[in-house]
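tokens incoming
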């Protein structure tokens, strides 16, 4: 979350903005025309655009409108004329902020940071992190119900997945076959504790390098199973 595109035809202003933003650890690219700016904004992976209004080729109004059709990244519009700011507002182009030139570079940086933080929060709530369980080489994505062993995905049946996840979420805890059966299978399921043994065997074939010497799910003789931490 730190890539910024500046679309500005006045090279000295663009360079000044770039210098200040880079001092705040942002990565900055500059385009000097509206056409180039639009293309870069749509194709590049930018987190924010600083867009001048008066540009050769497509002007800032049009560039803003076209970016907004495809992307929801923050757009800060800048103009030399106060009247333009009112016009931008009036047109409802979807710009997030407006600044009148000349502005202080530190004000620009402060506004960029504020919009970036807000956008980051927005994206964060739209794309919640998947709930993961990770123990050594095993990574269980509970949300997507996928399992990776040393980075390679393995396919599990529903009950195998539930059983593996339950054990991995309670590492270093010994469960009897009875307890596991009650936990994973419905009370009225057909089957018995032998089902647990069969499922453990299948899980081991998928996660263990050598099923006869399990590194993850240990058999505690006469008691049950334990996921080693
Ligand atoms: Ca200009």
């Amino acid at each position: 979350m730190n890539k910024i595109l500046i679309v500005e035809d006045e090279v000295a202003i663009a360079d000044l903005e770039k210098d200040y933003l880079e001092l705040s650890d942002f990565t900055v690219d500059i385009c000097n025309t509206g056409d180039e700016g639009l293309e870069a904004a749509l194709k590049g992976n930018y987190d924010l655009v600083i867009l001048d209004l008066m540009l050769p080729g497509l002007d800032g109004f049009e560039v803003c409108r076209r970016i907004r059709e495809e992307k929801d990244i923050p757009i800060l519009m800048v103009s030399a004329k106060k009247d333009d700011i009112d016009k931008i507002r009036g047109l409802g182009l979807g710009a997030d902020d407006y600044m009148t030139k000349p502005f202080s570079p530190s004000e620009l940086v402060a506004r960029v940071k504020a919009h970036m933080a807000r956008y980051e929060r927005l994206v964060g709530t739209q794309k919640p992190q998947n709930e993961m369980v990770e123990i050594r080489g095993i990574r269980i994505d509970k949300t997507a119900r996928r399992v990776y062993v040393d980075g390679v995905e393995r396919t599990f049946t529903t009950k195998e997945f539930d059983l593996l996840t339950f054990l991995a979420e309670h590492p270093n805890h010994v469960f009897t076959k009875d307890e596991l059966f009650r936990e994973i299978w419905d009370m009225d399921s057909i089957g018995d504790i032998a089902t647990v043994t069969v499922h453990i065997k299948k899980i081991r074939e998928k996660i263990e390098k050598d099923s006869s010497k399990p590194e993850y799910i240990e058999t505690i003789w006469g008691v049950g199973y334990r996921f080693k931490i």
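note: The chain has two domains: 3-126, 132-227.
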